[in-house]
Amino acid sequence: MSPEIRTVTDDEFPDWVRTLHTGFLRPPETSEEETEARRGMYDMRRVRGAFDGGRCVGTLRSFAQELTVPGGAAVAADAISNAAVAATHRRRGLLSRMMAADLAEARERGDVLATLIAAEYPIYGRFGFGPAAWTTEWRVDVPRTGLDPRWSGPECGGRIDFTDGAGIRKLGPELHDRIRARRPGFVSRGEHVWRLATGDLHYPSLGPWTEPFHAVYRSASGEVEGLLTYTTDSTWEAARPQIRATVRDLLALTPAAERALWHFVLSVDWVTSVDSGLRAPDDLLPLLLPDPRSARVTGQADFLWIRLLDIPRALEARAYADSGTLVLDVRDETGIAAETGLTGGRFRLDAAPDGAACAPTTAEPDLTLSVADLATLYLGDESAVRLTALGRAEEAREGAAALADRLLRTSRRPWCPDIF
292 to each of 14, 146, 287, 296, how far by Cα in Å? Predict the structure, then answer.
């Protein structure tokens, strides 16, 4: 018999967690502490499994999320996580069936789109997802930066103070909400994110907990405008410190706060290199350094993937830098679309800086593309002209791709700092 796809009961949840660990190549055993912590954190109505003879052989869950789109609006998202299939049951369509069931419910619920962080590039395009925001990691050779080693604090009148995990849990959520209202690609953070980041909640399967350093930036008026979390190693060579700091989180409401926090972590005594963590590709680092070559790229990859569920609502939610009309023929030929009725069709977008309208139409198309490629354009990071050159979009009206770029692209690249 074909494995059954359904939500997980309380009694089956420990088996589900073991399957999750196995799928992500972690030791399969799990503690009761971790199982209960996950149970308390998850919306169990949205935890799905594939079951073969009563045994869990596949996992997928989703949860409510908000995604910031260009212009600052937050749209309802179906955040998908913990997708795994046991090696004994691979290539049997189990992930496709779990994904189809989840996306069908999300659309019925009224979610505008779905989001995920893709562990592997080839998997999720076949479900209509497209990479919408990328990330870059740098390693900074501190002695080469050209920064003044005598630096003792921000020149802008602000100040930086150490705090502890409790301080971050108190100050971080409000600061994050203010920042995410300004930056496309940011997603909402639940309480568990702050608890995991500060050690108040920890899963043994993630390895031993290392207590990080936390710092907060306050403006000259005393307002909290930035936070920094980092760890250090303890490397010494030839009786000299060769310490590497690794940034886990750096959030800033203002450019002054961002510059000050980078300058701070790059000025800590004994620290000779700094790993930036997951940053926007157009981060102020490394150009804020007198010698930007002191920072080398150590990682660059697609990060946040989007699957549009309601194209008119999605396109009406975001802002546009110019005025214009486009008729988009959106192809949704994925296997799950045939099962669920997602999302394709022909839509007329009338966009302007003061708002947009989008509705189905029978007019001749200006631009034809897949639902995944429209998702790739949605947050403003990719170029329709580039997709046309690649053969992934087809321009029926000359200049349509260039118009799409004028409407959709953003002055700063979208950024999602969170793995979920």
Answer: 49, 9, 5, 8
Indicate the helix (H) or strand (E) that contains 179: helix 165-180
User: What is the edge-to-edge ordering of all strands in the sheet holding 355-360?
Assistant: 355-360, 345-352, 324-331, 367-370, 393-395
Which helix (H) or strand (E) segment holds residue 258: the answer is: helix 255-265
Give 14-46 pLDDT, tens digit per residue.
999 999 999 999 998 888 999 999 999 999 999
What are the backbone dihedrals phi and psi of residue 186, each rounded to the nearest 5 degrees, phi first?
-65, 145
Contact 400, 326 (CB under 8 A): yes
pTM confidence score: 0.95
Where residue 336 falls among pLDDT bands split at 50, 70, 90? Answer: confident
Instruction: Spell out the residues 6+ positions from residue 33 whose beta carbon is closer than 8 angstroms to its own.
Output: 204
pLDDT at 402 over 90: yes
Distances (CA, A) of 94 to 56, 58, 103, 320, 372: 11, 7, 14, 39, 21
| Residue 63 falls in the annotated catalytic set | no
Query: Is 124 noted as a catalytic residue in this protein?
Result: yes
Note the pLDDT of residue 333: 87
Count the Cβ atoms, other than its own, within 10 Å of residue 377: 25
Among the listed residues 13, 42, 63, 124, the single catalytic one is: 124
pLDDT, position 305: 98
More confident residue, 258 or 335: 258
Q: Cis check for the bond before 149: say yes or no (omega within 30 of 0).
A: no
Residues 56-66 as b/e (b if ≥16 CB within 10 A, e otherwise) read bbbbbbbbebb
**Backbone angles phi and psi of 110, in degrees to 5:** 100, 10
